Amino acid sequence: MRRRKFLKKSSLSTAGIVSAPLFSSCKNAPEEKEIPISVPARKPIVIATWNVPNATAKAWEVLNSGGTALDAVEQGTKVEEADTNNQSVGKGGRPDREGRVTLDACIMDQNGNCGAVVFLQNVTHAISVARKVMEATPHVMLAGEGAEQFAYEQGFAKENLLTEKSRLEWEEWKKESKYEPVINIENHDTIGMVAIDEKGDISGACTTSGMAYKMAGRVGDSPIIGSGLFVDNEIGGAAATGQGEEVVKTVGSFLVVELMRQGRSPQEACEEAVHRIVKGNPRHKDFQVGYIAINKNGETGGYCIHPGFSYRVYSKNGHENIEPGSFLEP
Ligand code: SD4
């Protein structure tokens, strides 16, 4: 039904065409089909979770001067990592129960290369360390002390990431020590970013300090390729924000990209991925999960479980903060 509407719409417009394998449920082998997308191609373009105008403006600066999507998402997310007012990312992030700020991040380029760090301490730019893992090692993920050691070897500076503000809040939290990640209020503003550059290449990045006051050693979706982030240069990219455990259980960002491969728009794909989490999960009122997505033609989408989520788009057509709708209780 949806697909028929899609085809009809595109035949009336000067639609862009992306060629993508469409997986049919009754066959094992992927069938090659053209998926028409009924919006004019717009690139370069960058999207990011939440309202992060400084981060998208930085990414745009890179894209607009002919830079790559990979550089754009790294430079863009670094803005939030360095911003101590953002207490969900990088320096100034809220600590775990023991008072340690531990960072998770991953990055993925247009060739399917990726790099990630988990439980990284004392280094602000986890996203750049993740990129170094991708480019300077044969591995895709480094954790804890190994990641930190690697970062110093690569020239990253050792820094105290726990700001006075985050420390005082943690001291306050310790008085009650009640861990309830209700609707992600405690930990908002993790940044997931996906960009398409002038050449049409897609890359993405995701970086976070994770859930506030998490158990020591806890890692969420954000550094896990396929969960917090996924990019397929033929199709598009997606990123997640919210309670990582729920995203990991459904391999959320990979799911969004695969749904787009099957012909869904970015908006439809984000909605379906959220519904997969909500379906049959009586706890869904207690947590937040949101997705953003972009397809090869620069069409964007976003959706989340609860209201209050927004995502940011920066393109030649202008820049805007979009509140994309959410799953509402029947
Ligand atoms: C996590 N997904 O560690 C992250 C948290 C987050 O906005 O996105 N907060 O589970």
Low-confidence stretches: 1-40
Order of helices and strands: HEEEHHEEHEHHEEEEHHHEEEE
Task: Please state the overall shape, judged from the principal axes of the Cα atoms.
Answer: globular
CATH top level assignment: Alpha Beta
Question: What distinguishing features does this structure have?
Answer:
eight-stranded mixed β-sheet; 330 residues; binds N-hydroxy-L-asparagine; Glutamine Phosphoribosylpyrophosphate, subunit 1, domain 1; four-stranded antiparallel β-sheet; single chain; 9 helices; alpha+beta
Quick synopsis:
The protein has one domain (3-315): 4-Layer Sandwich (Glutamine Phosphoribosylpyrophosphate, subunit 1, domain 1). It has 9 helices and 14 strands.
What can you tell me about this protein's structure?
This protein is of the alpha+beta class and 330 residues long. The protein has one domain (3-315): 4-Layer Sandwich (Glutamine Phosphoribosylpyrophosphate, subunit 1, domain 1). Helix content is 30%, strand content 25%. It contains nine helices and 14 strands. The chain has helices at residues 2-11, 53-64, 69-82, 126-136, 144-153, 164-176, 244-249, 252-261, 266-278; strands spanning 16-22, 31-37, 45-49, 103-108, 114-120, 141-143, 191-196, 202-208, 229-232, 236-242, 289-295, 300-304, 311-315, 318-322. The protein has an eight-stranded mixed beta sheet with strand order 6-5-4-8-7-3-13-14. Strand 5, helix 4 and strand 6 form a beta-alpha-beta unit. Helix 2 (53-64) runs antiparallel to helix 3, helix 3 (69-82) packs antiparallel against helix 4 (126-136) and helix 8 crosses helix 9 (266-278). The longest helix has 14 residues, at 69-82. It is globular, with a radius of gyration of 19 Å. The chain starts with a helix and ends in an 8-residue tail after the last strand. The model is unreliable at 1-40 (pLDDT under 50). N-hydroxy-L-asparagine is lined by residues 88, 184, 187-190, 208, 210-211, 220-222, 241-244. N-hydroxy-L-asparagine (SD4) is lined by residues 88, 184, 187-190, 208, 210-211, 220-222, 241-244.
